[in-house]
Amino acid sequence: MSVRSDDNDDDLKLLFDTSYDATGSPSPEQEPAITNLKTLQADFESVLTDIQSLANDITAPVINAKARTMNTKASQACLADNNTHQS
User: Fold this and answer.
1) How far apart are CA 72 and CA 60, in angstroms?
2) Which of 2, 9, 42, 66 is 20 to 30 A from residue 32's alpha carbon, by CA?
């Protein structure tokens, strides 16, 4: 006989839910620890969404054809100015 995992999950839920049947007992969903975990989960999901949004906005720098063909040698004026400051 094969058992689906969902069946086992339901059995466990029923087993543990019975301890909350007493009058005035909070359900598992109302426990402070569960509420805090759900709040943390929502906070993490919000941060993750923000990070993904920022990551989508970031683009790698692109060097276009004009920048590739620019002369990178220093001009004579720059060289003269450099020599003046070094003396």
Assistant:
1) 22
2) 9
Read off the pLDDT of residues 24-55 as tens digits, 9 standing for 90 and up.
666 666 667 777 888 889 999 999 999 999 99
Give me the chain's average pLDDT, please.
Answer: 74
Confidence (pLDDT) at 75: 72
User: Which residues have CB under 8 Å from 27's CB, separation 6+?
Assistant: 17, 20
Helix, strand, coil abundance in the chain, percent, nearest 5: 70, 0, 30
Joined tokens for residue 42: 């929502």
Alpha carbon distances (Å) from 67 to 16, 42, 61, 78: 68, 46, 12, 20
At position 5, the amino acid (one-letter code) is S
Signed CA dihedral, 63, 65, 69, 70: sign only: negative
